[in-house]
Structures are given as C-alpha cells and as structure tokens.
Amino acid sequence: MNNYVYLFWGYNVIWALIALYVVFLAVRLSRVGRRLDRLESSLRDSDDD
Amino acid sequence: MTSPSDSSSLPGFFRASWIVAAKDLRMEWRTYERLASMALFSLVVLVIFNFAFDLVTVQRIGAEKLVPGVLWITFAFSGIIGFTRSFQLEHRRDSLVALVLAPTDRGAIFLGKTIANLATVWILQLLIVPLCAVFFNFDLVSVAFPMTVVVGLHTIGLAELGTLFAAIATRLGRGEALLATLLLPGSTPLFLSAVKCTEGVLRHQSLGDLSHWLSVATGLNLLYLLVALLTFEYVLED
Amino acid sequence: METSRSMSLWVVLGAAIALIFAAIYMAFLYAPTEAMMGPVQRIFYFHVPSAMVAYLSVFVLLGSSMAYLWTRRRGFDYVAVAATELALLFCTVVLITGPIWAKPAWGVWWTWEARLTTTLVLWLILAACLMVRGYATERDAGARMAAVLGIVAALDVPINYLAVHWWRGQHPQVFGPGKKDPLAPEMMHAFLLCMVAFFTLYLALLFLRSRLAAAEDRAQSLMDRVRDS
Questions:
Q1: What share of chain A is helix, strand, coil (3-state, %, to 5)?
Q2: Residue B1 to residues B5, B104, B162, C180: CA-CA distances in angstroms?
Q3: What's the pLDDT at C27?
Q4: What is d(CA B163, CA B80) in angstroms, rounded to the nearest whole number?
Q5: Residue-range definition of the domain harbouring residue A21
Q6: Which candidate from C121, C148, C166 shows the least CB-CB separation from B185?
Q7: Mean of the per-residue pLDDT values for chain B?
Q8: How far apart are CA B216 and CA B183, in angstroms?
Q9: C81: pLDDT strictly greater than 90
Q10: C100 — contact with chain B (CB < 8 Å)?
Q11: What is the C-alpha separation between B42 and B36, in angstroms, rounded?
C-alpha cells in the first residue's frame, strides 16, 4: 500500500513541474504578445505622424 | 586586428603566453598580496576543519579518509580567491581592455594567466600540505613524491577551469561568489579524481596503482585546456 | 510563413498531449507490475525518459551554443535559452522522482552514487548558466558567456556515464552489455512509448520556448526603436 503513495507522489511531481512550466510559458507568451501589439501600433502611429 | 605573423606562428603564441605569465608573476613577486591572502585564508580553513571534526572523530576515521577532502576543499576555495584576483586588478584599472586589444591570440592570454595562477597555487600548496600533515598527523615524508605528483597534476585542471570561469565572472562584474558557483560544480570530475588519488597516496599506494585515475586527470586537464583555448576569445571580447 | 510555423507547433503540441495520455495508459494499465519492486517501479517509465530528455537537451544546448559563438545568429541563442531551461526542468524531474523511487527500492532517499551525483552537478551548472544570463547587462555578453558555460555543461554529460562505470554505483543497470531481456515485452513497449511521448513533449516545449525568446527579443528591439523615435 505504501508503495502506491510513492508512485502517486512521483507522478504528481512530474506533471506538476511540467504543467507549471507550460503555464509559465503561456503567461509570458501572452504578455509579450500584448507588448508586441502595443509597440507595433505605437510605432505605426509615430510613422503616420 | 591580429598581425598574421603573430597569430599563426607557434613560437609567437607561447612567447605571448610567457609574457602575460611573467607580468602577473612579477606583480605578485613585488607585493605578495594575492599569495598572502590565499595563504591566510587556507590557514583559516584548515583550522576551521579541525574544529569541525573533533579529535575522536579524526582518530576514528583516520587521516587517509579525512585529509583528501580537507585539502581539496581548501585548495578550491583559496584558489577561487586567487583566480578572481588575477582578473580583478586589471578589470579595475581597465587594463583588461589593453590586454584584449594586444595583437595576440586570446588563447595566449588564457595560457599566460593560467600559468601564473597555477604557479601561485603550487607555491601555496607547498605551504599548506605540510601544515596539513602537522594538523592531521600523517606522515608526509614517506609519500612526498606521489603526493607531489597527484596534487600538482590535479591543480593544473583546477587552474585551467578557474582562469576561464574567473574571466567570465569578472566580465560580468561579479567576483568570488559567481566563480565558486561556476567552478565547484564544473570541476567535479576533477575533484573526484583528486580525492581518490590523494586517498590512495595516503594509503601508501604507488602511482602505478593510481594510474587509472591519473590518466583520467590528465585527460580532463587536456580537455579543459582545449575548451578554454577555443572559447576564451568569446569571453574576453567586448 | 508565420501560420505554417504555428501549424507545425500545434501539430507537435497535439501529438505530444495525445502521446502523453497513451504513455500514462501504458505505464499504469498496460505494463505488468514488476515482481521485485512492486507498483513504485512504474516511476521508471517516466524517470528514465526524463533523464534522456534532460541529456538530449544538454546536447542541443551544446550544438546551439557552438553555433551561436560561431555565427552570432540570434536564432541559435533562442534555442540555447530554451534548451537550458528545459534541461533544468527535466533534471529537476529526475532529481525529485529518483529519490521517490529510491526510498522504497533501496531504503534511502539519497545516495551519493555517481549518476545521481553528476545529475545534481549538471543541475547546478545549468542553474549557473541561467544566472549568468541574468547577470549580464548587455544581451550579447550574457549570450556569449552562457554559450561558453553551456559547452562546459554538455561536457559534463558523457563524464557522468563514465563516472558511473568507474565508480560502479548502485544505480539499477537495466540496459547494459550481457543483460538479456532486462524488461518483459509489455514493459518494453510501455517504456518505448513513454520515450517517444517525452521526446515529442520536449520538441513542443523547445519550439514554444524558442518562440518566446524570439518574441521577447523582438519586443525589446521595438521598444528601443520607440524610445529612439
């Protein structure tokens, strides 16, 4: 029975770490996406001026 | 940037290395500043180790088990102090720029600095190893030659990696802390071999018995040298 | 161009997710329970592929670092950052699942045996690589230093395997010369699928992280342009 506890936590650790990393990537990707949109539009505006 | 005759001729390369090494050693000879701080630090570390392990433990475990670790940790940390200093002085005075602009292979600068660092640590070891023999009560005289070979050989690799990483740390404006973080994990295989060999020597094994690990150490020394010579110019460039 | 790159990324990501579900099924339901170690042995199906992926990533780091130093093309640096982070991630997985397996199997959480030790050392060097990037004030200097360190970190990997051989550590040698049928066929199928799943996942994450690095770099240069205009 104890054996299953280790197995359970082992798998949890693996997927928790990978999931956290994917979330970290997703957050940063959306943040930089918004930043890029903002910068590109402000550059377009200053080019238009 | 590099004059064709200097960069392609081998004597030019070694001459340049020797000039850099001689400059550093001459500076050291004048003030002893680096060697003094390394020596004092090593002494402090040795004393702390004696507090860390009480007399009963030392007697029970025995010198051959304890001394290798103590010695190499001492060399590692005092080496870190020395290697950092080897670049910091020039970094502070901006003479590193002058060194970088010199019409010579950057690898020659690395070799020169490494030779100077190596010589400094070797001199330090001449002091520390006998002192360790006194503190930990082991017979150094009977194992003097194999000990010299083992310690001297492994220090070469330590100096090579130490010089490379010290250059990186100095270029990033950092000092001993970053160098320690880089050097200690990076030189682990060398440390494994060093401790194994030192323990073997203290157990009165011959150099022949240790030939496997000695060839590992030699291989590592060559590998580190090759990597450092190839990558040093990228570290130094502006 | 953009859409076709996005398409291939989504394809790889989708494949990775599908393969992972398959891998979990194989590891838990398809593969039989191991006779000696019991259920906890199933960690092996993910522990070993994680280690393989970590080492693969270190070699990707080696290649991209050398390519960056040689060509100075930013693209290689983006891959190098991604490879460093992913190697660190999978090394972390290995270092945590290893002890979780070791405790029921060998009775101790940690032994300073060669393979575990050198994986820990690799983790330290990779962490230092990321730290060095953070310390640099100029982007190119940080990339260069990290590339040099990446090359050193990669050299640690083969030395790791040699160290195991010479120190004769207690790491379970499942695959090796002279070992016939180390795994039952169903176990082998499960293991191979898990390897494929992890490699695909790695590829997907590598693409994603490189894209992120490229996007952040582009945002930085745009910001410089905005500031200048």
A1: 95, 0, 5
A2: 12, 9, 27, 60
A3: 82
A4: 9
A5: 1-49
A6: C121
A7: 87
A8: 18
A9: yes
A10: no
A11: 10
Can you list the pairs that B33-36 forms with residues at least 24 positions away whose Cβ atoms lie under 8 Å? B33/B85, B34/B81, B34/B82, B34/B85, B34/B86, B34/B120, B35/B82, B35/B120, B35/B123, B35/B124
| CA B2 to chain CA centroid, nearest Å | 29
Check if C91 contacts B (Cβ < 8 Å).
no
Contact between chains at C144 and B181 (C-beta distance less than 8 A): no
Three-state SS sequence of C157-200: HHHHHHHHHHHCCCCCCCCCCCCCCCCCHHHHHHHHHHHHHHHH
3-class SS at B16? helix
- Is residue B73 scored above 70 in pLDDT? yes
Whether the pLDDT of residue C3 is over 80: the answer is no
Q: Which of A4, A14, A28 sits opposite C212 (nearest CB)?
A: A28
Give CA–CA dist B130/B124, Å, rounded: 11
Q: Using CA atoms, how far apart are residues C58 and C125, in angstroms rounded to an integer?
A: 11
Alpha-helix runs per DSSP H in C107-138: 114-135
**Average pLDDT score, chain C:** 84
pLDDT, tens digit (0-9, with 9 covering 90-100), for B98-119: 777 777 788 889 999 999 999 9
Alpha carbons C203 and B21: distance in angstroms, whole number: 47
- Quote the CA–CA distance of B182 and B189 in Å, as a whole number: 14
Dist CA C191 CA C206 (whole Å): 22
Q: At what angle do helices B106-136 and B33-52 cross, to 10 degrees?
A: 40
The rounded distance, in Å, linking the Cα atoms of B83 and B64 is 28
Residues in chain B: 238
Transcribe C9-73 into DSSP letters: HHHHHHHHHHHHHHHHHIIIIISPPBTTTBGGGGGHHHHHHHHHHHHHHHHHHHHHHHHHHHH--
Cβ(B213)–Cβ(B197) below 8 Å:
yes
Q: What's the CA gap between B177 and B84, in Å, rounded?
A: 10
Helix (H, G, I), strand (E, B) or coil at B204: coil
Rounded Cα distance between A29 and C225, Å, is 21
- Indicate left, alpha or beta for C179 from its phi (over 0: left) and psi (-120 to 50: alpha): beta
Q: For residue B93, give the amino acid letter.
A: R
- In A, which residues are within 8 Å of C219 by CB distance? 32, 35-36, 39
pLDDT at B91 over 80: no
Domain ranges of chain B: 4-236
pLDDT digits (tens, 9 = 90+) for B25-63: 888 888 888 889 899 999 999 889 888 887 788 788 888
pLDDT of residue C117: 78
Query: Are B178 and C125 within 8 A, CB to CB?
Result: no
Query: Encoding tokens for residue C91?
Result: 């090394």
